[in-house]
Queue: 4 jobs
Job 1
Amino acid sequence: MKSVNIAIDGPSGAGKSTLARRLAARLGFVYVDTGAMYRAIAYEMIRRNAESERDILAALPDLQISLRYVDGAQHVFANGNDVSALIRTPEVSMRASAVSAIPAVRAFLLETQRQLAKEQSVVMDGRDIGTVVLPDADVKIFLTAAAEKRAYRRWLELEEKKPGTQSYEDVLADVIRRDKQDMTREIAPLRPAEDAVTVDTTDADLKQSEEMLYAVCREKLHL
Ligand code: DC
């Protein structure tokens, strides 16, 4: 049977991963967080001191990125090592945004991502899922929110994990810088697919946002 694919794209901090995970659980689909794959590459490049594009390209052939699910949660592996707990730092975020602008890095992950969506029904989140990775996805959602709100949510998250790491102003500056980097790159820039439904979560809490996403899926999938 053909798998059902739901593509969710949008800027960082719009609630993509939390909402995509919840949506996948509700529909009985597998959640695929493609940002974690870019983060795993970024982490490995930092570890290997591969900074220039040339060094990164040279390091790619002996890098293997894979996903496995432990108790239903996605874990990302770089050459067999579980790096999931190491890829959520501000440093890795910035580097992930930079490495994801390199065409060879995107090509490196494209087939793996398409294969995952072919084998099973997925909710896949990222920046170019509806536009490039899964242009025939059954549902395409562009999830967004005002930059200030996204920065505030990210700052709260950081405060819970490690209080005092970054000020709200620094987080906002990072969000704006990363949005710009992701939206203006030449290859697969962040933008809504023509047939995507835009969902704005600026004034919605998690539960309301989840219901908005589920309503779009219900309509498109005739549930
Ligand atoms: O969603 P995230 O913050 O974990 O993503 C990390 C970086 O990876 C982000 O700056 C953009 C990039 N990315 C991408 O270019 N394409 C994707 N499909 C997913 C993430």
Job 2
Amino acid sequence: MENIEMNSNAPAAAKEEPKKVIFSGVQPSGLLTIGNYLGAIKNWTTLQDAYDCLYCVVNLHAITVRQIPADLRRRTYETLAIYIACGLDPDKNTLFVQSHVPAHAELGWLLDCYTMFGELSRMTQFKDKSAKNADNVNAGLFTYPTLMAADILLYQADLVPVGQDQQQHIEICRDIAGRFNGIYGNTFKIPEGFMPKTGTKIMSLADPTKKMSKSDSNENGYVAILDPRDVIIRKFKRAVTDSDTVVRYAEGKDGVNNLMNIYSCFTGKTHEEIEREFDGRGYGDFKMAVGEVVADGLTPVQARFNELMKDKAYLEEIMRRGAENAQRRARRTLSKVYRKVGFVEI
Ligand code: ATP
Ligand code: LTN
């Protein structure tokens, strides 16, 4: 996959040319973590002026793992509120909820018929999640990448900003689109992954060889965007490191490397600057400092979030506006696809 490196001053789209389209989403399957923040949402905010961006709360994807209905409903509002609290402007971006746009499920089914069993079987997320949910290895979990391809292809997205773990899903999306275009002529734009320079893979604090994940059963593994200050500090204090004592970025020091990455994302400091800053100081000091910068960085996000959650009507208005806009755009692609495959239009 050709990945473009993002930087904070993303290039402005050339004059006269329509803006490039960006699509991405997060599942409302738990409390969003600093992994979601650094790997995805924080970077989305740097793109909102130069690109035509659609950001979705992907609740259809979330039910591939069993959810408690009341939690799913609440988290849908929360995820949207977090998007806005992190700095996504609802007037500049199309913010919407996946289940409000039926074309996602419709194109998802259609693309299932152009996706091979073998290629879905190779997806590492499917293998990981089926191992984790052995009692519920459902067909949706298996075809998850096809629905994700539908999300992206419906809007003819040029770029998809995601963390490293989604690279394989972008790849299969490109393969499916290419296959469909090969049979029916040019129908879908072939999208590209769009990875940030840093923060693409934040690891678990409890097991730094594993990705930090909001659905981790061990709460000490992740820091949620909404965790209170004392919880954030406590989780960093407990973070797994190693028996060495030097704050240094090196192979085999997964825990320390991860903390350095997090510290770097929140302060803008390089690894060398961090090594110098903590020269001669122990891990205790370092962990405390990481906890503090993360808590400080999240304070304004949490304040804005709390305000937004008090105003459900406002959030519903954003959902409605987003859904209308997304529906109109998605229908255009879906009609084209239906015509191409030979569905009768009435
Ligand atoms: P779940 O645990 O429910 O599978 P998740 O925490 O892995 O969820 P997703 O909703 O699957 O999060 O991912 C949303 C976005 O956040 C994706 O772009 C993904 O690449 C990014 N992301 C998730 N976890 C991390 C992480 N640990 N580091 C960097 N980016 C991440
Ligand atoms: N699969 C992604 C969430 C997701 C997504 C998308 C991301 C669903 N549809 C479309 C980008 C584009 C995940 O698990 N992180």
Job 3
Amino acid sequence: MREFLKGRVVVTRGDITDCDVDAIVNAANRSLLGGGGVDGAIHRAAGPELLEECRTLGGAETGEAKITQGYRLKARHVIHTVGPVWHGGGRNEEKLLEDCYRNSLMLAVENGLKSIAFPSISTGAYGFPMEKATPIAIRTVKEVLEAEPSLEKVCFVCFSRDDMDVYVENASVMLGD
Ligand code: APR
């Protein structure tokens, strides 16, 4: 695990469903009714009540974020956000990915949450290149943390060693050691 910004940003390797935070962020699809990858893992760990609540949300557009309870997860809440599918960069993907991080963080602030954990949104099934997605994630989190002192901790949870190396390399440059 590596810490930045006096511990307000943490980069760690592991399974986001194990995170004991106020909210974990789910890389969902527009139906918000579950899927594979981290979406599947979160629904499996949270149990069926999560899907029942998701059915009441009416889906979400790319870049949007919606909040539910966390049910059987350690996390008290799940913030579901829909990342952009990577089509080469010509369809506003970078701005939409930034919206996912910003809207998820602002939803946490609006709900009085102090700690939040993100997976690497869109970099799996949705094909967003890690080397492009990671600086967007870190820059957006930095901007919101500077504006929102109520947010105490943002964790980037990397599912692989390689992903963690990309986050640590970018965070060291962008956030200072
Ligand atoms: N904990 C943390 N990170 C995870 C976990 C986990 N348990 N499982 C997967 N990841 C990582 C992947 O390694 C990847 O870096 O989450 C990142 C996002 O990958 P995906 O889950 O494939 O999400 P995404 O690329 O945003 O695609 C979303 O996939 O599962 C479906 O319903 C989902 O349609 C949506 C699409």
Job 4
Amino acid sequence: MLLKNKKILISGLANKYSIAAGIASAMYREGAELAFTYQNERLLKNLKPIAESYGSSILIESDVSSDESINNSFEQLKKHWDTFDGLVHSIGFAPADQLEGNFVDVTTREGFKIAHDISSYSFTALAKAAKPMLNDNSALLTLTYLGAMQTMPNYNVMGLAKASLEANTRFLAASMGRDGVRVNAISAGPIKTLAASGVKNFRKMLSQHSARAPLGRTVTTEEVGNVAAFLCSDYASGVTGEITYVDAGFNTAAMPLYEIEEE
Ligand code: NAD
Ligand code: 0WE
């Protein structure tokens, strides 16, 4: 039981395919007490039965594009918990028109602003709001992607936002370390979630991933969840400011082992 007596707040659980659902499942199994935030009313009906299955009825609305919504959500949380031990940020967004086409042609000032606001600043905003309630030996965790480090078609301005999120992870770690707060990120391989479902040629990307990755396959939300549970546990007490890849080794291999079969 990695997380016995730990209270952890999880954001970004939209449905059972969400990475946040794999994280919640692993954390619940490891003994954590969970609470959840959701973006809007529309997502509450999906979340409710899932949260219930993880023993939680603490469901709080939090739209990270609004400081008022964030502040309200922590006021709500205080009614249930005086203090807590962990926060999972599993939120990312860019307008759809930013994620298809040639980077220099499709990227706009407004698209850049929204992507960075929702996908990076929100992690700082949640850390700021959570800070007064965080116990000693607590942990913050976010989800990033290889597009922060290397290019690929269509990920575009989200790559810039993830680069910012990774720097955010390091600066938050430096900023909060003396308060007993660790801050880390998991860089997950591609997974077919709601956020990936609108993406052109995503199935092709999954098969390319399997071909190049040392493990010869993609990763599951459960595998991401297991590493998330570890990083938020006291077994990771010496780890902060780190980006941990959970991608079947994809980022470590420059070429696939075998010739890809002709189609
Ligand atoms: P998902 O669609 O299940 O989760 C994305 C979540 O972001 C949703 O719950 C949505 O409600 C939330 N969100 C968006 N805008 C918000 C706002 N303004 N306020 C509050 N919440 C908001 O998809 P996912 O793939 O599980 O994504 C979770 C995280 O994992 C994201 O940061 C994503 O970039 C990252 N990630 C995903 C993959 C992948 O291939 N699926 C790979 C690496 C990293
Ligand atoms: O971070 C992500 C998903 C990011 C995302 C996806 C969407 C689709 C719907 C952010 N905003 C939106 N906005 C929408 O309107 N991933 C790592 C998954 C992902 O998304 C891609 C990928 C991969 C991988 C987009 C293009 C290319 C590759």
